[in-house]
Amino acid sequence: MNRCARSLLILCFLVASCATTDERSHSRVASAASNAQSPAAGAMSTTEAYRALRDSLSQAAGFSSAMRIKITESGFETSFNDGTVRRYHYKDTPEPKLEICGFFSNCFGEVRVFTKGSGAGVSPGCCNWSWATERKDAAERFLAAFRRLAAGVAEDPADAERFAQEAKKFREANPKPQLPEDARRFRVRAESAVSDKRFDDAADGYEEALKISPWWPEGRFNRALVLGELERYTEAMREMKHYLLLVPDAPNARAAQDKIYEWEGKQAKRK
């Protein structure tokens, strides 16, 4: 088995030299980049983008047991057992490029991104990372996910209007609808994931339940808290606002609004 086949996904962190040097060293393969097109960012939902980026980077992280990856709405960070932490922010990252591999035989493409990395052990302005795969569809999915999250996670006005109508129907309903069995299945899975502190899986589980029953208040509230744990504050605030639209007179309405204020503050510190 060749080296690329053994290492389907490679995530490399190079901090010894500046991006300009790396760009020159990779120029021999840059000309092939224009032949590979990735899906438009808007074609992928926010949740699909988180899943795709998480899966790609997690598989890459498997080559180093000391590396842990955390993905948020503003970027992602890697941390190591030696205390080194490196952060990569979408807003500081140029448009990623998909290139024909220059270092691994029989490898389809390599994504190279030069960033303003920050954190312990990182030289200011001299940080880049690359991700490689021998599968074209995997490379395109990675790029689409990165671009989708870099574009932001604001709610579409049409979606907001549809939910407002859904919330109005729920408030006026008497009796209130019961959670159907299909949604309950995802609820149980999400609650189990929360117990195990698998917050990514919990967020996905609650979302699947809410696709079936978008009027479910507890699902909105719980997903908001889980998203807050994941530092996906824009989505967390949106879910909590949806909760308050559904049950504005809930006993915990004051605490829910205060949680929104808390997330606003945390989000502001990251900008």
What topology emerges from the helices and strands here?
Layout: H1 3-6, E1 10-14, H2 19-25, H3 27-30, H4 46-61, E2 67-71, E3 75-80, E4 85-89, E5 97-100, E6 109-115, E7 127-133, H5 136-150, H6 157-172, H7 181-195, H8 199-212, H9 217-229, H10 233-246, H11 253-270
Antiparallel strand pairs: 1-7, 2-3, 3-4, 5-6, 6-7
Helix pairs in contact: 4-5, 7-8, 8-9, 9-10, 10-11
Describe the structure.
The protein has 271 residues and is of the alpha+beta class. It folds into 2 domains: 3-150, no CATH class; 157-270, Alpha Horseshoe (Serine Threonine Protein Phosphatase 5, Tetratricopeptide repeat). Helix content is 50%, strand content 14%. The protein is built from 11 helices and 7 strands. The chain has helices spanning 3-6, 19-25, 27-30, 46-61, 136-150, 157-172, 181-195, 199-212, 217-229, 233-246, 253-270; strands at residues 10-14, 67-71, 75-80, 85-89, 97-100, 109-115, 127-133. It has a 4-stranded antiparallel beta sheet with strand order 1-7-6-5. Strands 2-3-4 form a 3-stranded antiparallel beta sheet, with helices on one face. Strand 5 (97-100) and strand 6 form a beta hairpin. Helix 4 packs across helix 5 (136-150) and helix 7 packs antiparallel against helix 8 (199-212).
